[in-house]
Amino acid sequence: MTTADSTTTGAATSADRVATPADRVTAAPTRPGKVIAVHVAYESRAAQRGSSPAAPSYFLKATSSIAASGATIERPAGTELLAFEGEIAVVIGTPARRVTAETAWDHVAGVTAANDFGLYDLKSPDKGSNVRSKSRDGYTPLGPGLISAAEADPRSLRIRTWVNGSLVQDDGTGDDQLIFPLAQIIADLSQHFTLEPGDVILTGTPAGSSVVVPGDVVEVEVSTTSASTGEELSSGRLRTEVVEGPGDFDAELGSVPAVTEALTVDAWGTREAAGLPAESGTALPTENSTALPADLRAKLEQAPTAGLSAQLRARGLNNVVIEGVRPLRAGYRLVGVAKTLRFVPNREDLFASHGGGYNAQKRAFDSLRSGEVIVIEARGESGSGTLGDILALRAKALGAAGVVTDGGVRDSTEVAGILPVFATAANPAVLGRKHVPWESDVAVACGNATVLPGDVIVGDDDGVIVIPRDLAEEVVDAALAKEVEDGWVAAQVAAGHPIEELFPPKGEWKAKFEEWKSSR
User: Could you tell me which residues belong to the region Disordered (predicted)?
Assistant: First the structure.
C-alpha cells in the first residue's frame, strides 16, 4: 500500500541499507551506560494528546532493556496494552557537561533507530517514571546501524515505523516537526549530569504510536541524506516481533497489571483507535462541524443531488456544484459535513518545509470526525494524487463519510473499495509533483465551488453539491416533496399523457395531483 505523500518506503533489505562505508554507518551500541528518554518532543504527538509541554521532560530506562534487531519482545500473558514508539536514538560520542545548543552536536557519535516499547498495563503506579512499564527486558530495541553524526544534519533526519509491513509513522526533525530540537535536548541534559560516551538519548515518538499484539512485527528506520556525498544513509530496519510471555506477577511483591480507560486511550493513541465511544460530557464541537442529526441525514440520503440543486437554485444559489468530480465507483451515496484541506502549487522550497513529515494533509486526515467529508482544494490539477489507500483507510477508521477532491487519486482501485471518493482522475504520482499540503479547516475552492468547514456535502452519480448548513433542512424537505411530484408526473407520462400542463402540473393536472397526494 502507498500514501499520496510518501516517497520511497525503503525496498532494500536491512543488510543492504547498512552496507555503507564504515565511517558513515557502523554498528549501534549494545550496552550503553545510560538510556534517557524524552516524554514528548514531536508536534504531532502533542497535537494527538491535546497538550504541548513548555520544556522537555525525561525518564530513565534500564540498560538491560536494550535488545538488537531481530529480537522478540514479550507481552506478558493477561496484559493487553503493549505499545510501540518508533524513535530516533542519539548516541553520545564524547563527554558533554554544560555544553551549549550550538556545540551539542559535536558531542554526538551518531544516530540510530530505537523502539521505546511500553506496557501501559503497568504504567499507573510509577507516576511518569515508567520504571516497570518501559524497562522490562527487551523493551528498548536499538539499531541495527549507527549513522555518523558528521554525516547527519540533526534537523533533517527521518523516522519511519511499519507494523506488519504497513507504514504507521513518518516524521522528521525539522523546526515545524520537533517541539524541542535535538541539540536543545542534549544541551539541557548536560546541565544536570555528564553525558558519557555510549549514552543513548531516545528523542520521543511522533503520532502513530499504538498497540501491538503477539504475532505483530514492528520495524523502525532512521534515514538522512549524507552531508558529504548526498546519498541516502540508513540505520537499516530495526525489526522486533511480539510474542506472548509469562504473566506470573506476584501481587504480594508489588503492583500488578491494571487497565483503565485513560490508559487504554493513551496506549492506542485515540479513543476511536481503541474502539471506545466518544467521551461523555465532552463539549460538542462548534455547530459548523457537528455531525448531522440522524433524521436530517436520513432525508439527505434519499434526496438526489439534481433535486437538491434545483431547490438551491430556486433560493438564488447557483454556484453550489463541485464541478468536474465523479465517483470512483458508480452507485456511491455521499452525505456529510465538510472538513476542508487546501493544497498550493508545488514550489520546491515550500515542499521541503511543508511536504514531509506530519504535514497538513496527514494532520487533516488524522483529525477527521465521524460523519465528516474531507473536501480538498487541488485547483483542478489532476497531475498527481491528493490521497491514496493509507489515508482512505485512516478516514474510514475514523468514521468519515468520504472524500471530495478536484485533484487526482492514487491507488484508485483500492480507494474505491474503502469509502466514497469523488475525484477528477486517477493518477499514480505523489503530491510533490504538483502540490504542497498547506492548511486545513479554512474556506476552500473545490471544483469552482466555495466550501466552508461545516457545509453539508451531498454526492451521487450526478456529482457533488454544497448546501449551506442553515438551509439544509428546508432544502431537503422541498427536494423530497418535489421528488414525490416528479414521480407522479413520470407515471402519467409513462401512461401516454402529453407533458403540456403536466410537467409541472397545472390546472386540472394540479388538482389531480393534489387529490392523489391527499389520498396516499
Answer: 1-24
| Cβ–Cβ < 8 Å for 417, 468 | no
Q: Which three cell numbers stand for residue 38?
A: 524524552
Q: Could you tell me how far CA 134 lies from the centroid of its own chain? A: 25
Torsion angle defined by CA atoms of residues 285, 289, 295 and 296, in that order, rounded to the nearest 10 degrees: 150
Contact by Cβ (8 Å): 505, 513: yes
Cell of 9: 518506503
Closest to 69 measured CA to CA, from 176, 144, 148, 147: 144
Q: Which of 241, 198, 303, 268 is nearest to 72 (CA)?
A: 241
Structural domains of the chain in order of their starting residue, each with its CATH number: 14-268 (3.90.850.10), 289-472 (3.50.30.40)
State pLDDT tens for residues 178-236. 999 999 999 999 999 999 999 999 999 999 999 999 999 999 999 998 878 888 999 99
Q: Determine the Cα–Cα distance for residues 324 and 139; give it in Å rounded to an integer.
A: 52
Q: Which residues pair with 96 in a beta bridge?
A: 195
DSSP 256: -
Q: Are 75 and 199 in contact (CB under 8 A)?
A: no
CA distances from 158 to 86, 109, 170, 214, 235 (A): 11, 18, 7, 27, 11
